[in-house]
Design brief:
The longest helix is centred in the N-terminal third of the chain and has 43 residues, at 41-83. By secondary structure, the chain is mainly alpha-helical. The protein starts with a helix and ends in an 8-residue tail after the last helix. It folds into 2 domains: 3-120; 123-269, no CATH class. Strand 2 and strand 3 form a beta hairpin. It has helices at 3-33, 41-83, 88-120, 123-139, 175-180, 183-204, 215-226, 235-239, 242-261, 265-269, and strands spanning 147-150, 162-165, 170-174. It is 70% helix and 5% strand.
Length: 277
Amino acid sequence: MDTDQVEQLASRIEYCSQVIQESSDQVLRQAETTNWQGGSREALIMQIEDCCQRLRQYGHQMQELQMAQRAETAQWVDAAAKFGNGTQGQASIVSDALQGFWGSIISPFRDWYINKIWEDASLEERIRMANAYLSFIVSSYGLQVPLRVIDIKDLDGHDSRGYYRPDSRDIQIDIDNMRDDDPRSLLGTIAHEARHSVQHYLIEHPEDRPQEISEEQIKSWKENFDNYIEAENDFEGYQKQTVEVDARDFAAMRINDFLEKGIGFKEVKSAVKGVEK
């Protein structure tokens, strides 16, 4: 670790934190003292107050980040003094902890930002965003999976959000969910169904198995699909199936990576015209 460079970064983060908080206070004071009595003044002031509050929160989070970064540097220096060159393991642990801390800070911003884009997006733009996320996920397995948005009839008491069709090798998503869902839920559905496409592909092509998926896992998927329980016949049994549990876990992991690490974030937001790439 180059401690001088790390300290420079921490100082820059601390400075940015101060600028954010001071600037937000200045903007709010100017807005409140501006001589304007238009009909929408009160609504504008409320929006500015909300934005400034968010900015102050991010400024405070950046302050916490630079403190954590400096704490890591101190731990690194202390470990180096005690153990010499044998600090790689401890450095890795500390770095992982800091990465998790940073993820917890940036996640609410990404969540807010993608929600804002989603709210302003047309149905066509939402479909492009969903397609971009789907392509990003399945391309890592060398796959191309079409996305189709249709009207899917809901089961009694359950929302039929979408499904993967192994015969046509495409994913179908309910148009109502595309219109009404928040992006986290919709993209979670995309990730879930994308996992089903991967499951089916690896059953047919086990030679393409990535290292993180075992042969036993693929065999269990095949056995499950050979004896698959449809949701309309037994919803509880359907949810407990190996392939469904695996798809839910995969979707939860991908959405967490999307928000905390930004994995796939650029691809999704870039699918909308007028959004900065």
